[in-house]
Each structure stands twice: as C-alpha cells, then as structure tokens.
Design brief:
It contains ten helices and 16 strands. By secondary structure, the chain is α+β, with helices and mostly antiparallel strands. The protein folds into three domains: 56 residues, Winged helix-like DNA-binding domain superfamily/Winged helix DNA-binding domain (Arc Repressor Mutant, subunit A, Orthogonal Bundle); 204 residues, BirA Bifunctional Protein, domain 2 (2-Layer Sandwich), CATH 3.30.930; 49 residues, Roll (SH3 type barrels). The strands form four sheets. It has a seven-stranded mixed sheet with strand order 3-4-7-11-10-9-8, sandwiched between helices. The protein has a five-stranded antiparallel sheet with strand order 15-14-13-12-16. Helix 1 crosses helix 3 and helix 6 runs antiparallel to helix 9. The longest helix has 22 residues. The radius of gyration is 21 Å and the shape is globular. 39% of the residues are buried.
C-alpha cells in the first residue's frame, strides 16, 4: 500500500540519492545523522511511494533513474524581475489546492504558490483523482485575488491552459493542445489538468485557487492507474526536463495571462485558444448533469469560455459546471467538416 505522506527522513534520503550515484547506507546515515536501520526504513518508504531503487551489497543504494528535485530559490531566480509570485515547496501533501485554500482563508496574499514534490490525493474536475508520481510531476496551486466577482471569471480555466501550453513550447513541446474546459493534451493524450476553486460571491471580491498538475515523467505502473490515455512532458519533448525550469516557465506565463485576464477577461485570448483546440471540427458527446447525452461538432469556445457545439442546424453553448465532454464513438480522426 502506498504511504499517504512522505516523512522528513525519507525526503532527506531522496535528496541524497537524487543525483543517481550509489550511496552507502553507512554514508547516508552519517550524512543525515541517523542510524543505518533508519536509512533502510526510509528507502523502503521511497520504494513504497513508487520509486525504483537498486540495492547492491558493498555499494549501497541508487535510484534507477535520476530525479529533478524542486528548489524554491532556483525557481524564484528564474522568474522575471518584478514578479509578484512567492513560491513554497513542500515535500508531500494530500492536495495543493486544499492547502492553498486553507492558506487563502488565513489571508495568504495573491501570488502565493504552493508546490508539492509529491501530491498523494490530488483532486481533478468532477471529483476525479489526479495521479502524480513522487518527483515525477509538477503539482502546484496559486492563490489569485481579484476585485471582480466570480461572474466575471468565466473562461479562467481556458486561459490557464493557454499559459501552460505557452510554457510547454519553451521546453520543446511545440504541439501541445487544449481540450475544453481544463485539459492540456498531446496527440489526444492528457498531459496536464487544471482545477479552479473560488471563494467569494458572484459580484464581490473573489479569491481563486488555481491548481495544475503536469505529467513530467510518468512511470508505466502509474499510467495504468489513470482512467484515460495519458502522456508525460519528457515523452512529448523527446528529452529529459528540469522541473524547476518548467515550473518557472509555467508560473511566468501564468502570471502574464492572469494580468491580462484580470483586465479584459477571456475574450482577447479566445483566438489563441481556438488555434490550440484539439477537438475543433470533431464529433463530440456532451454528458449533461441529468445523465442525458447530446452530440455534435465541436466549434471551440465562445468569448466567455462557453463550449460551442454545432448540432441539429444550430450552435449550442455549454458551460463547464457538471458537464462532461468526450470524443464521440469512432470519431478519433478529425472530421472533414467546415470550422
């Protein structure tokens, strides 16, 4: 059974092993200041969390693959001058969104970012679980305060998707696309997901927590646990990634997008989202809250972020809420219809 959190000792051992060299149990114990038995238990904890660790008599322990651990100072150095973001790295947490919401209730300032090396019980849209490997994903949440009410924030998840797609291009993923309302995909496989949660009312000041999970290196064992086709950034880019660089690029683009969104909403971003829309012109099925299913041809997003679907000679609008969208059966190939 996977542990629900990572102990400080296990995290210390992980930092010592991150570079990929063999480290003896005795050396690790001396470096960290614990017994060899404690090191052994910490290694078992890391293995239970999903990491593959070689054990060789006379040489010690070594990770099967090196990992890129997160460093808040390194991320902050990569942000542009004048950035108002404040980044905190936590070793493990059930959900970064839950933690960020708790801190928002305690008046955490706008621009506060919580990032987890390991998110053990992440939440996705419609109550789905987000699977994230230890040191193999980017899972973070940003507190964003707006003087405008929730009613003015429609289309926010689409705007966040644009920011992530822009950041991925800087890291070598030129063909990432967007799926309404909150997914980033690569060749129809999920690369990243977005979860928006708000505190406030329809017309008054609003505090929004913007959560994102990006698959950076997804082990096959974890991919099998995901209930849809998934892929990771390293596969899409074709080379290993520095997670600090990807996180800094994502936060940089996100801060830029949010500044514009706060002034003008989703409208000015719509054309870019349309270009990145993965299912434009394809037949889709929409499951409504009452269980009914409607189908039609995806026409992208309206200026307020609503999904546009051509059906029965008209174009219908759907808002995210509890609506679920998928490709219609046998329509994985793009349909030859005008857009």
């Amino acid at each position: 059974m996977r542990p629900s959190l990572m102990s400080p000792l296990a995290y210390s051992v992980l930092k010592q092993l991150a570079g990929g060299e063999f480290r003896s149990g005795e050396g690790l114990a001396m470096q960290i200041g614990v017994s060899r038995g404690s090191v052994w238990n910490a290694v078992r904890e890391l293995e239970d969390a999903g990491l593959e660790i070689y054990r060789v008599r006379g040489r010690g322990y070594r990770l099967r693959e090196t990992v890129s651990l997160l460093d808040a100072d390194e991320v902050m150095r990569r942000l542009p001058a004048g950035s108002r973001l404040a980044v905190e790295i936590v070793p493990a947490v059930p959900s970064t969104n839950t933690l960020a919401l708790e801190r928002a209730r305690r008046n955490a300032p706008s621009g506060s970012v919580v990032v987890a090396e390991w998110q053990t019980a992440g939440r996705g849209r419609l109550g789905r679980m987000w699977q994230a490997p230890l040191a193999g994903a980017l899972t973070f949440s940003l507190v964003w305060r707006s003087a405008q009410g929730a009613a003015s924030l429609s289309g926010l998840s689409l705007a966040v998707g644009i920011a992530i797609a822009r950041a991925l291009r800087t890291q070598g993923v030129a063909d990432a696309q967007l799926k309404w309302p909150n997914d980033v995909v690569w060749r129809d496989r999920k690369l990243a997901g977005i979860l928006i949660e708000m505190q406030g009312d329809a017309w008054g000041p609003t505090c929004t927590v913007i959560g994102a999970g990006i698959n950076v290196r997804l082990p096959a064992s974890m991919a099998r646990l995901i209930d849809q086709a998934a892929v990771d950034v390293e596969t899409a880019a074709g080379h290993p990634l520095d997670r600090n660089a990807l996180l800094a690029a994502t936060l940089t683009e996100l801060e830029t997008v949010l500044e514009g969104f706060g002034r003008e909403g989703f409208g000015p971003l719509r054309a870019e989202w349309q270009r990145l829309h993965a299912w434009q012109g394809r037949k889709v099925a929409i499951t409504l809250p009452d269980g009914r299913v409607e189908s039609g041809i995806a026409r992208g997003a309206d200026r307020d972020g609503a999904l546009l679907v051509a059906t029965r000679g008209t174009v219908r609008r759907y808002h995210s809420g509890e609506v679920s969208l998928r490709l219609a059966a046998r329509s994985a190939a793009r349909l030859r219809e005008p857009t």
